Amino acid sequence: xxxxxxxxxNPIAKVGLKLFSEDYAKIEDMKEADAVLVRSASMxxxxxxxxxxxxxxxxxxxxxxxxxxxxxxxxxxFNTPGANANGVKELVIAGLMLxxxxxxxxxxxxxxxxxxxxxxxxxxxxxxxxxxxxIEGKKLGVIGLGAIGVLVANAANRLGMEVYGCDPYISVxxxxxxxxxxxxxxSKEDIYKECDYITLHVPxxxxxxxxxxxxTLSKCKDGVVILNFARDLLVNDEDMEEALKSGKVASYVTxxxxxxxxxxxxxxxxxxxxxxxxxxxxxxxxxxxxQIKDYLEHGIIKNSVNYPDCDAGxxxxxxxxxxxxxxxxxxxxxxxxxxxxxxxNIANLINKSKGDYAxxxxxxxxxxxxxxxxxxxxxxxxxxxxxxx
Length: 389
Ligand SMILES: NC(=O)c1ccc[n+]([C@@H]2O[C@H](COP(=O)([O-])OP(=O)(O)OC[C@H]3O[C@@H](n4cnc5c(N)ncnc54)[C@H](O)[C@@H]3O)[C@@H](O)[C@H]2O)c1
Ligand SMILES: O=C(O)CC[C@@H](O)C(=O)O
Hints:
The chain is an alpha/beta fold. The chain contains 13 helices and 16 strands. It folds into 3 domains: 1-84 and 275-307, Rossmann fold; 85-269, Rossmann fold (3-Layer(aba) Sandwich), CATH 3.40.50.720; 310-389, 2-Layer Sandwich (Alpha-Beta Plaits), CATH 3.30.70.
């Protein structure tokens, strides 16, 4: 019988699933699963069975997962930072071109004349109405300089654009990767004021929700192009419609069409294809599966969005107890007290915290009785205890 069971809420690339050994079984019913792999399926309204210890989002955005609820239930949620960034970057560059040259209009028009006699002549005659602009020399504002934003900024800069970037929380790693040619601005106001094109690469959070709205659009240049390859709710659709009608916005390129924007005049709607490449899907699947395996087999946490990362090292012998708990005083004293009461020597102990939650790994030599885990579970603030042996 398999030691671990996992459930996939979306199709996950085979190259990732192949990394699961014979210790793992893929099951259709989430009720029995130890781990769940997901892409864009919404888990917000789902009842999560108690046995689920981990969820891996094969992708970046985690707004489809109830992160706080999961943390409170001791469920570690992972994502795969950067694994699909190149795929998205390439489509953003395509989006810049689609908005600047009337490629879609032109292609559609050719189809309307394809049965005519002298297509080549008609094309030459009719092409003028699809003339566009070049992006070279224009100003691009990148809001959010994470894995995708940095790649977009650098690529647009190489294409001859003058690039402004804004990210008050930029990580050291991403700052290192940002070309020195990018003009780093402290406030988004500078981007709104200066840029001909604005591209969004921030997560959907309370403070980014509907960040593009009547007020922010009014600060933009007339004829600005907005690109949204991040999440639809970053933009107020009603305000966008008004801005497109008035010409304030020349074009809105979105990878997240909805009932409102799919048929809206001036919108270039792409069916969420940013990460839909073989390479991105493979990268995400591999990273997600490795993280799930490391967690289930060794208690290692890497790239979690609701628990601290914790490299406890490979679990090889003896017993490892992992504890997901609230980040409150006195927890370690109580944990070690349970072991010392049984006269068990702790060989190694790691404790990490992130916000309201913490994670402790305790290694002991030899085996322990199940009563230890039961006692740990009764400590106020303990959310989940796993025993690896
Ligand atoms: N279209 C797609 O298929 C696709 C694929 C991947 C990611 N995404 C979306 O793109 C988003 C970004 O992805 P990523 O991989 O670059 O993530 P990331 O976490 O590497 O980067 C996000 C960046 O946004 C910054 N940020 C957060 N709040 C901000 C704010 N208020 N103002 C400015 N910057 C802010 C963060 O500091 C971080 O650097 C994801 O959250 C997801 O919603 C879409
Ligand atoms: O899984 C996908 O296809 C899209 C993923 C993307 O939206 C993300 O946030 O990583």
